[in-house]
Amino acid sequence: MSLSQVHNEIARLDGYLAGIAASNGCIRNYSANAFLVQSVEPETSLEQAITGLYPRRTEFVLGKGERLPRGFGSLERDIQPFLVRELASASSTSLTDLRRYLSFRVLDMLWYVVEVQLGVPQWSATEV
Known about the structure:
The chain has helices spanning about 5-25, 45-55, 70-85, 90-120. The chain is mostly helical.
């Protein structure tokens, strides 16, 4: 896959996340994005590269890396409450089902990009 195809997949994931965030309401309070971070200089930290994408944000703190005991499966579970915070007309069961479905779709897209871009099999990605 070419780099332009990887960018297309990231853009697709970005749009999917933005749509999920918008469907939650409070569009000024919540957002979700996906982007490729490419540093121009080798000594640029990941934190600096991400901050460079958002010049108006004055504070950005990247926490330490986190070990994913079940690979991306752990990340899939951990992002669920952030994808859909609440739904006024949904029961707790349907809200849980929606969270599971959306997180599965997000991770499905992410796995595809990680395997193609980094050449890392999805089951061996264990740190974020």
